[in-house]
Write a structure and sequence with these properties.
InterPro entries: CheY-like_superfamily (IPR011006), OmpR/PhoB-type_DNA-bd (IPR001867), Sig_transdc_resp-reg_receiver (IPR001789), WalR-like (IPR039420), WH-like_DNA-bd_sf (IPR036388). By secondary structure, the chain is α/β, with parallel strands linked by helices. The protein contains nine helices and twelve strands.
Length: about 240
Amino acid sequence: MTPGTELAMESQSDVTTTASLGTILIVEDDPRMQRTLERTFAQEHYTTVVAGDGQTGLDLFRNERPIAVVLDLILPNISGRELCKIFKQLSAETPIIVLSAISEVADKVLLLEIGADDYVTKPFSPRELTARVQAAIRRQRKPPVQTVYRFGDCEVDFKKMTVRRAGKPVVLTAHEFKLLKFFTDNAERVLTRDVLLNEVWGYNFYPTTRTVDNQILKLRQKLEPDPTNPKHLLTIYGAGYKFVP
């Protein structure tokens, strides 16, 4: 056996022994694009199955149970839009990333409304596409978020946007819920006023730091047993605020 043959066999062995991260279904009718997508995901250690039309894509989706789908919109037999709806009816948790030359905002909004998890417009960067697919897969694998949060004598249901303190209902505004959610997501962390302004109010809104102080004062009045001596929404002098469950 020649050294070159040995090297080729070793290289092939390395490829075959690399564990697949899962199967990605590619539904795309352009053979050149199919090959590009196959190479792109193979480099990231994914197995791929490819369909050149909508009906084949549907059959492979049912048989292969992919961890994600990369879907073109213009397809023979079944359109990409219709296929997206069918995929979500069969498996709502499977991420679908649309790959299309369509770039109008209205079409992007429509894609998200029919169930697509993300979209990438052609021409695309392979690095961006794989990053978006991987991000969609990670989001799907996250454990379900606990919507009911309890601290002190308070019980907050962020999904239903309801609060009870000592068994009695408390009314919060939508923005107070948003601020409280950010605090509970960052419990025990000291948050500066600038962080709160950027993360809760947003970069496109320009309140003063006094706005933060007033909002926290209102939360204390509604949620603390003794607002003048808070146990949960604490002021860290010279730094900001900290939430302690």
